[in-house]
Amino acid sequence: MSDFTAPKGWDFASAPKRLIAFISSHSLSLPTMGRKPRLHGLHGLRAMAALMVVLFHLHGILGLAVPDSLRIVTTHFGFGVYIFFILSAFSLAFSNPRAIDDVGGFYLKRLFRIAPLFYVMIVVYSVCFEAPSIPVLISNLTFTFNLIPGKHQSVVWAGWTIGVEMLFYLMLPIILVVCASNIALAVGAVVTVLVSYSSYFLIAQSIASVPTYSLMAFPTNLAVFFAGIVAYRIYLGVQDRHAKPVALIAATVALVAMALLLGSPGLFLFRDGQMNMLVWIYAFAAACLWQALWPCWPFNTRAAQWAGERSYSLYLLHPLLIYSLGDVYTLVYRELSSIGNWAFLACAAITLPLLFALSAFTYWLIEGPGYALGTYLRRRRAAARSDRTASLGTTP
Predict the structure, then answer these.
(1) At 252, phi and psi to the nearest 5?
(2) CA–CA separation, 158 vs 137, rounded Å?
(3) What is the mean pLDDT of residues 135-147?
């Protein structure tokens, strides 16, 4: 006979029905940061970041030629992943300022937000291509693959960012506590920049046989996440007063920095390796602060909000879709040879509607229910903790 005692008020008979009802009621739209208002500008930026990465890989995966006028797609649209990192740090700090109070619940919710679709994609890639070895599979299932040079890019194409994100989630509750003061925040910003800058070169020299690892390793990207936390803390200090003036300053900083980086100063900084990227991330952080405080119309449209909410599916699904459309792209470039490399836009016009449709389906079928289940389990965990605390308080 088990000694287990059910928490007070818990009805095992009705639990499955309540769980199904909860998931069904949340499966079409993810919860939006608890009781806090949604930051529409950040959702719009997610949509932009997803589009940047998709277009970057539309060129990169199959080597599709891009017109000279759109060369920025091949040189800078890959930076969309860093915008994702910054947005992740900002939004998680915004929605979980006291994550340290329930670390287990925070981890549980993030796991169910990321794992379901990622695990499905592991199965898809294992079926479509060679199945991974047991050690590689375990590292992907546990999200530890970023710690293994040579296996850091994941079984799932473009999945290296997920490995970096999950390691950041582990650290976030501690970072929010340690950097609670403005002085600690400033010190943290400087330290993370130094860590990321030095890590890039140290890893490149010590693991030269895996050239991409220096860019994709977690330490190299730590400063990117911290830039999002800095932007969030500034937002927190001015959201109720001086919002528009600060938004204008942030917009000016972001736009001027990006203009300089795209011009001759950017070329000069690029010669110093990672310094270019470190300047870019704080330009992106300023853009996030701007859109959080005073969102622009393009980022606040219903289309941008829709795409931003489904950006995770857009990100994980697009590499395989692009790869599978290779023959279609070849036909498009051949039939539209009269317009040369501008056929790239025709390929984008074919890819994006298909990607949006697939993402809408996986969001409805996998992302929404997974997130809702994580939210449900976190609430049950919180309720159980409250019941235990109350019972301890009433014990004579």
Answers:
(1) -65, -45
(2) 16
(3) 97
> DSSP character for 313?
H
Give a yes or no: residue 104 inside a domain: yes
Q: Tokens 């546990």 identify what position?
A: 142
- Check residue 74 and report its DSSP letter: H
d(CA 255, CA 257): 5
132 Rama sector, left if φ>0, alpha if ψ -120 to 50, beta otherwise: beta
Domain range for 369 is: 37-384
Q: Is residue 350 part of a domain?
A: yes
CA distance 255 to 267: 17
- pTM for this entry: 0.88
- On the question of pLDDT at 30 being above 80, the answer is no
Number of domains in the chain: 1
Q: How far is 160 from 143, CA to CA, in rounded Å?
A: 10
Spatial distance between the Cα atoms of 2 and 289, rounded to a whole number of angstroms: 53
Tokens of 113: 């937000």
Question: What is the C-alpha separation between 207 and 233, in angstroms, rounded?
Answer: 36
pLDDT of residue 378: 86
Compute CA distances 138 → 148, 151, 161, 259, whole Å: 12, 12, 17, 44
pLDDT reported for residue 335: 96
* Residue 321 to residue 313: CA distance in whole angstroms: 12
CA dihedral 328, 332, 333, 334 (to 10 degrees): 100
Residue 19 lies in a domain: no
What is the chain's Cα-based Rg?
22
> CA quadruple 219, 123, 78, 90: dihedral positive or negative?
negative
- Residue 142: left if φ>0, alpha if ψ -120 to 50, beta else—which one? alpha
- Residue 236 inside a domain? The answer is yes
